[in-house]
## 1
Amino acid sequence: MDDGHAIGHRLGLGHLVGGQQHRHASGTLLADELSDRDATVEIDAGGRLVEEQDPRLADQGQCQAEPLLLATGETAPRGVGLSLEIESAEQRGWLQGVVIVRGIEPECLGGRHDRVDPALLEHDADRADQLAVLGNGIESEDGDGSLVGSPVPLKGLDGGGLARAVGTQEGEHLSVAHVEIEVVDGGLVSVAHDESGDADGSVHGPHATDWLEANYYPWPVIDLHKVRADPKAIAQALARRGVSADEVEHIVELDLVHRSLLQRQEALRSEVKALSKEVGQARKAGDDEKASALADQSRSVGDEEREAAAEAEMAGTALRQALLVLPNIPSKDAPDGAGPDDNLEIKRWWPGQVDGAPEPTYAEHQKVPHWEVGEQLGLLDMERGARLAGSMFPLYRGVGARLLRALGAFALDAHGDAYEEIRPPTFALTETLLSTGHLPKFSDEAYQMERDDLWAIPTAEVPLTSMHRGEIVPEAVLPIRFTAQTACFRREAGAAGRDTRGLLRVHEFDKVELFAYTTPAQARAAHLDILERAEGLLQALGLHYRVLDLCTGDLGASSARTFDLEVYAPGCERWLEVSSVSWFSDYQARRAQVRFRPAAGGSPELCHTVNGSALAWARIWAAVVEQGRQADGSVVLPEVLSPYLGGTLVIPCP
């Protein structure tokens, strides 16, 4: 890279290897350690020829080195190609080195600064539309637009102290959607992963700015091609959820503006390319005056191109943010409605129903709320929980704590036949919550640790959905099923005016989650499997429950179809939601870029995701205690929990 100014040590590029055939990577080299035989850069993008750009000194910021074609994964023969001309630091303080991958054409750095702009290096060989900006005026793009090979991740290069190694990262460690991004800084400023900086030395990134303003994520949430092709149909579908047609129209307008600005940027970029070639031709002809004038013109157009790029990025950010809050398109099978009152009850179950027993009514001793029963029997201490962590943080004790543990173990054992048990982290990155749709829409409901860019998970759905984020899996391995028990954290920001006594509404609760990646054809069966398993647990526990088919106005933002399970709590005299079983179509998979490669061949397709609670234990605990309360004040627990409670199923009244 070259901006015509000294930037400390010269930047030496060692061997870089990426893609499926990972080879050995070498570290960066200081200028005096870089011999004329070490001027090689190797990128394995998979299945194609790659080019090697010989790093060499340049003049007036114009790229003049010629590429050397290498076979994939092959190192340039020693002494073959253009040699690297090393000059002393007193003579020249800069060195140009441009990595060329799969027919990529380099451009020169446009402006002149006291330091080289940081370069965000990224390349995804699986995305035909990938345009990866390597720096100010240096860009890479697929030469033929084909889908070949796997991503080429480039780790950070530091042209100041050259403290960090140039290397590669294994495919399974790549960040979201096969793109590995690192910052190259030619000065002495430390720039962290996923941060970027300016020529004046300032650094910015997701840790230094509000996360919502950060460009975490380049993919639309619903299929933008469908919005472009038939915005009226999309508006009609989303109108069933109460989304105004103006929101869809606004997205269409933003998309038009964004594409227009990208076209202007591309036109200016093409002009810079043409001028750069003319500069080279003039220099070869010995016409330095013409070359200098053309170089000035090139820099001027380059400035315009950078301004256009900034405008395009601003428009792109506005488009992405509008898409991020747009909910999923509801299933055609979801009942229409405006809110909870329009949900459709499709089933009720109670013990003895199959034998003709009537729906149960409850005795007076069962109409005691669980917070009173818990306090009386020493099972639940909400007062001490509040003393430790604030209101709505429960504290279970004695047999109450053991009951909670037993419920979780019982459920995990029940699902172990088909679902792999996972114990994910309790905290997740912003991009992980973006993948499920919990951000940005529900940011007020979540607990955030801004210092670390981490969020306490509101459900195990969040980490499980990102288990294969940015990956392409073979169709043969689908469906992939996971189960996990975690603590879940929610602010319950909308709880004002609602009943928050006991366990009705809490900030922290334990829950077992079921999750599956599927093909579109497998999604319905996987959705029903989770529903049946959640119902099976409730039936095994002997709990009176009902199933609701949520109307379009009550669906979660990411869901296309949801069934809620509610148990009856006689002490509270209300139905309590204990599970939501949802099919998300490709909405979450598009955000997380989880795809599968069809067994019959062809391009990768987006997976579908389904998940459901099986079950959320705070309210199950409440229903078990209330439904199981006896006339003498004791509580009889469900028989299926006997192995987890040492055979003791009666909590006596003191």
## 2
Amino acid sequence: MADYCKLIIVGRFTRDPELKYTPSNDAVCEFSLAWSKKGGGKETSHFIECAAWKKSAEIINQYMKKGDPILVEGELKQDRWEKDGKKFSKLKMTVYSFQFLGKGGQQDEQQQAPPQQQAPPPRSSYTPAPPAGSPPPDFDAPSGDSIPF
């Protein structure tokens, strides 16, 4: 069986997304997400750095900002580097697809706002092709012969 890693996170932007371009002119948008988990009478917050590529990067950068909710799907990538003789590593998420989840309380404000204000962008979902050299985000479904019923 092949190894496989897939993350699905619903969280909020901890900062505004940052759009950059590689030397080959590919767009990359870096951002950080936070989510909370309640359990055992306490709430724990978690954070992860994310990167979206190409058209996904441009769309996320255009419509999202700090505090906005989003659902992202992708895989983990471990960055490793060395500085002053010390080794460091950090897990990041490479985003393959996403879905905007709305703008929180802004929908209520929109209904009360004067007509000259623009509405927030509609909910959307975009599933781009993964970056070159990356494995596809889908896994191989079992064949009909291997289903136990």
## 3
Amino acid sequence: MAGHHRLTPSDRGYCCLPLFHVNAEVVGLLATLAAGACLGWLDTGDLGHLDQDGYLFLAGRSDDVINRGGEKIYPREIEDVLLAQPGVRSAAVVAAHDEVLGERPVAYVVPTEPWPRELADALREACAAALPRPKRPSAFYLVRDLPLGPTGKVARRRLRELAAGRHS
């Protein structure tokens, strides 16, 4: 948060709230989470961008960003490509360890049909057509279901653990 500045429309950045918009009980908790409060702002952990009219569009969570050799890769951009393909019910992209670049994206995909053989090839082709090479997943794993947390959101931490086990 140090050196924060307002971004121009369509620039992606961290979503922060002025502390006067935050409940006093939350502000009290910030004493123990000092990294979350800097210069009177609360870092929500969300990423987003503002459109020309000032409306905020969320683009994911800052802890989900994949750092591939210094290049920031946003999983949602890859997931949007995967979810647009026929035969995909749901998808999640997470970081896997890379010996040279630090991290690389891998995709977990839930197909609409049970285990179609050609789906991984079709997804690879779709990503090649829509994404620059560094953003393309290095692996596609077809799974029955994505792990979900108590709120029904994808448990990305669990997927990162699975990716670490597969690539260690």
